[in-house]
Amino acid sequence: MKTAGLILSDGELRRDVLDGIRDVLPITLGVLPFAGVFGALAIERGLSLGELTLASMTIYAGASQYAMLDLMGQGVPPWSIVLAVFAINFRHLLYSASLGRRLAAFSIWQKVIAFFLLVDPLFASAETRAFKQGLRPAYYFSYGTFLYAIWMASNFIGALFGSLIADPAAFGLDFILPLYFTGLVIGFHRRPNFLPVLVISIAASLAVWFTIGSPWHISLGGLAGLLAAALLSKPGEEVGHG
Amino acid sequence: MDDLTWLFLACAAVTYLTRCGRHVILSRFGTIHHRVSAALDAVPTAVMAALVAPSLVTHGPAEVLAILVSGLIALRAPLMFSVAVSMVVLVGLRTLI
User: Fold this and answer.
1) Is B70 inside any structural domain?
2) Does residue A16 sit in the same domain as residue A113?
């Protein structure tokens, strides 16, 4: 990792900004439909444009917002929705631990904003940048604010034009959330003890769902998976926190 | 402010906590126990699996098959691709079944 210089020439600054935009452009192709469908779905589920704006502006975490929307439709108590959002965004803890070491060139307020903007692709790109050239604020914020702007714009596009789709079921859109979460879960398949954690979480979730009922299947099912992971863990598998 | 506003702000607050949290914690404490670490690493898998599990029993065979397709494709391909393909499969199965 190279040390990021604190004083930049105009040329370096411009290159950082342009590199940030160049790196984020391919990512926007994935964010656009994802955020657009969220906007459309939120309006379809009865949110106003103002409520959608507030949610997407302040939370800025698509997967957890999909879960939030899904749970709002099931009429579960608000605290369990907040808990689910917290749990789904838990992966960010790993990002912040790692990225924290790369922010030497950032002021305290730049760090505060940097962590707000910290989404999956930005984390990946910032880590790569830190190893290649050193991570400077200009690159990070160019990339991060561009993605944030695309996210908000796509939310609006979806909200305004989503209603043009007359029958969501005809396109499978009514079932997009479970399909999305399934893909997301399987994406973690290289983590230690993935299969036992997956099987135990599903089994516990279903057991709770049939007995105690919703929304406890989320927290209790998840907890069963965590216990399994803790019990199966061996000291050697500890991944350094860095 | 109404209930939804509070809900969204609470969700935003916990999300921000996850984004800065571990950096703040780690700059104060040293290492954490391997079992705690393993449990933390398993949070997304466990919670999202628990979240989606009832979908396997509340819908018909078309939906269950679509979930399996989504999972199988996600083993190799990007997430968005697996979602797109499984949606096409779902629409196809619904017209057949």
Assistant:
1) yes
2) yes
Q: In degrees to the nearest 10, what's the CA dihedral of B15, A87, A154, A176?
A: -170
Instruction: Establish if A173 belongs to a structural domain.
Output: no
* Enclosing domain of residue A210: 188-236
Tokens (6 digits) for A53: 């704006």
One domain for residues A144 and A222: no
Distance, CA of B63 to CA of A89 (rounded, Å): 26
B5 inside domain: no
Size of interface A-B (CB pairs under 8 A): 287
Instruction: Answer whether B31 touches A (CB < 8 Å).
Output: yes
| B52, B56, B60, B66: CA torsion to nearest 10 | 70
**Residue A7, pLDDT score:** 61
Tell me whether residue A181 is in a domain. no
Which residues of chain A are within 8 Å of residue B21 when distances are taken between CB atoms? Answer: 92-93, 96
Is position B6 within any domain?
no
Confidence label for B11 from pLDDT (cuts 50, 70 and 90): very high
Q: How far is CA A94 from the centre of its chain?
A: 12
Of residues A162 and B55, more confidently modeled: B55
Is B50 within a domain? yes
Angle between helices A120-132 and A137-161 (to 10 degrees): 160
Structural domain total, chain B: 1
Name the domain count of chain A.
2
**Residue B12, pLDDT above cutoff 70:** yes
**In chain A, what residues touch B1 (CB-CB under 8 Å)?**
none
Whether pLDDT at B72 is above 90: yes
Residue segments in chain A with a per-residue pLDDT below the cut of 70:
1-8, 165-169, 215, 236-242
Q: Hey, is the C-beta of B60 within 8 angstroms of any chain A C-beta?
A: no
B66: nearest CA partner in chain A: A179
pLDDT of residue A18: 94
For residue A63, give the H/E element and its range. Answer: helix A62-73
Handedness of CA B13, B16, B21, B27 (dihedral sign): negative
Is there a contact between B50 and A225 if contact means CB atoms under 8 Å apart?
A: yes
Q: Is B96 on the interface with A (CB under 8 A)?
A: no
